[in-house]
Amino acid sequence: MILPPDALAQANESVLHPTEREIPAMKISRTNIVVGVISFLLGAVVTVIAAWIPLSRFFATSSANVGAADIVYSLTTLNALKSGKITNAMELLEVQLDGGIIVLGSKLEELPAHLHHKNQIKQMKAAWDYRAKYPRKSDDPDMDATVAAYLDAFAAKE
Questions:
Q1: What would the pLDDT profile of 47-79 be if each residue is shown by its tens digit?
Q2: What is the pLDDT of residues 68-114, one digit of tens each?
Q3: Which residues lie closer than 8 Å to 141 by C-beta, 6 or more apart?
Q4: How far apart are CA 155 and CA 124, in angstroms?
Q5: Cα angle for residues 113, 115, 118 (degrees, 5° grid)
Q6: pLDDT value at position 155?
Q7: pLDDT per residue as tens digits for the range 121-137
Q8: Quick check: helix, strand or coil at residue 43?
């Protein structure tokens, strides 16, 4: 079937520029708004609940891993002390101190100053005092520089 040219032009015109009569009017009522808001809130609640379980498992696993690492570190240090390897035990504690300084220093660096807890700064000052009294050079000059930078940056804030 061949359409007359006018019919084809009218069909194209109605597709490109539909009239109001061809578009059903959307009624926005109070009921539609309430249903929309409730749907949004329910979606947000479901999202939070769905994310909560994996996140809580992640944090529980992370905490468990930290606890396990602490046990390994403590046992290694205690075994070194009990077997008379004082130098090994002291080195383990020195490495642990450096690690704590780096972790705390990096977190303090990320946070705005008004969120720094005074006990955290106090511990950095105590570590700075210890390092001033007992200087240490590790096998890693970059780590030594990082530790010194964090101590200098945050110990002075006490």
A1: 777 777 776 776 666 667 777 778 888 888 888
A2: 778 888 888 888 899 999 998 899 899 899 999 998 999 988 888 88
A3: none
A4: 5
A5: 85
A6: 79
A7: 999 999 999 999 999 99
A8: helix
